[in-house]
Amino acid sequence: MKKWGFWRGYLLTKKIKKWIRQDTSAALMFLGPSVCGFALFYLIPFAMSVFDSFMDNSVDNVFG
Fold first, then answer.
1. Cβ(56)–Cβ(63) under 8 Å?
2. For a designed S-S bond to 43, which of 16, 39, 49, 56 qualifies (C-beta 3.0 to 4.6 A apart)?
3. Membrane among the record's keywords (predicted)?
4. In three state form, how does the secondary structure of 13-57 look?
5. Residue 10 burial (CB < 10 Å; 0-12/13-18/19+)?
């Protein structure tokens, strides 16, 4: 009687990796616009406000 424990696990892992590769491209298509929107409306304004908080006079761009 053969023991299929290791081989069966290898085959399942191989199938799961193939499934993940196929879904990755579709997932990136859906995540791309949301990541761009998050950066545009949250990260960039946050970075700008942190930059402005270190300014002594925000009109002349003089660091305080």
1. yes
2. 39
3. yes
4. HHHHHHHHHHHHHHHHHHHHHHHHHHHHHHHHHHHHHHHHHCEEE
5. exposed
For residue 39, how many other CB atoms are within 10 A of its CB?
13
Fill in the DSSP letter of residue 63.
Answer: E
How many C-beta atoms surround the C-beta of residue 55 within 10 A? 13
Dihedral angle sign, alpha carbons of residues 16, 11, 13, 18? negative
pTM of the model: 0.50
- Joined together, the tokens standing for residue 61 give 């761009």
